[in-house]
Design goal:
Layout lengths: L3 H10 L8 H8 L27 E10 L2 E10 L5 E7 L7 H12 L3 E5 L14 H7 L6 H17 L2 E11 L1 H12 L3 E7 L15 H4 L7 E6 L7 H16 L3 H5 L1 E5 L16 H17 L4
Parallel strand pairs: 3-4, 3-5, 5-6, 6-7, 7-8
Antiparallel strand pairs: 1-2, 2-4
């Protein structure tokens, strides 16, 4: 949990604000970012869960302001270093819990300022839910894509004001965050490259989620590496092939980001194969994917 000093530090993190109102502070503090695992993700596979040490790193929690709302986030970076490449680490459906915090630490060990905003903060605390159906119905289904995009812009702005190099910004996300990675690579002018881990590519258009990655392939602004599982029951290979075709067509029409985008499908891997704390974890695919992610960011000017 956050201590009193960390609570006071939140005030200083809001650009242009000397204090944070009580309601905003309570909103920020109710999410214990990076502390423990989400209840809905149980059971935890303790024998495989990776714990990256924080030695040599600066890590912590904070908030930044987006249109008057205080967005909580977890961050990690190499200690006492500035002008760092930035990577946005986008949560699974379970929010910013220990696994996402550890992923930030892994990127920090590789030289990045990694920041993971809690993108459900306006809708509720995912850590307080023990049932997937209720989490989906009461929180996740109520999160607008437009809100997420603005909150990510806010995360980029915070990074730029706190040691990050905004000429070197990447984004990576898992499951729910994998889809968001594709969306932000289409919208943001700051992002140089993205790595999407098993994010859905197609879906039903709604008022809150009007477009999906397949709909945006022709307008991609940054190349995306898609890392997917061949045994993913929720993401058929047919949808991956649809996305490949859409990217190829966009590439023939002059979209360099679409042309440069790639997929790697681990034929024996299920959904969430990178989630080392869950039974779906596949060590070899996860390690290879992370290695490819680092190489992708380096190749496309993020590192």
């Amino acid at each position: 949990m956050l201590n009193q000093d960390q609570t006071q530090d939140f005030d200083a993190l809001l650009p242009g604000h000397s204090t944070v109102d009580g309601a905003s502070r309570r909103t920020a503090l109710k999410v214990a970012l990076g502390v423990g695992y989400a209840a809905t993700a149980m059971p935890i596979m303790a024998q495989t869960a990776i714990k990256t040490p924080s030695d040599g790193l600066t890590t912590g929690e904070g908030i930044y302001d987006v249109e008057g709302f205080s967005v909580p986030f977890f961050h990690a970076a190499p200690e006492s270093k500035k002008n760092l490449p930035v990577v946005l680490v986008i949560q699974e459906i379970f929010g910013v819990h220990e696994y996402i915090a550890d992923t930030c630490r892994r990127f920090a060990k590789a030289g990045y300022l990694a920041i993971a905003p809690e993108l459900y903060a306006r809708q509720g605390d995912p850590g307080s839910y023990g049932e997937m159906a209720k989490l989906m119905a009461e929180v996740v289904s109520k999160v607008p894509d437009a809100q997420v995009m603005k909150d990510l812009d806010g995360a980029v702005a915070w990074a730029g004001a706190n040691g990050g190099n905004l000429k070197k910004v990447g984004i990576t996300g898992f499951c729910w965050g994998g889809r968001v990675t594709w969306l932000y690579a289409e919208q943001s002018k700051n992002v140089k490259a993205g790595v999407a881990w098993y994010g859905r590519l197609v879906g039903t258009s709604t008022a809150l989620t009007p477009k999906h990655p397949l709909d945006l392939a022709a307008d991609l602004k940054a190349p995306v590496l898609g890392l997917y599982g061949g045994q993913d029951g929720g993401i058929p290979l047919t949808t991956i092939n649809q996305m490949k075709d859409a990217l190829a067509e966009a590439g023939t029409k002059g979209n360099a980001a679409a042309k440069a985008s790639e997929f790697v499908v681990y034929k024996d891997a299920p959904h969430a194969f990178h989630a080392d704390y869950r039974p779906s974890y596949r060590k070899d695919a996860a390690a290879d994917g992370f290695k490819r992610a680092l190489a992708w960011f380096k190749a496309h000017g993020v590192a």
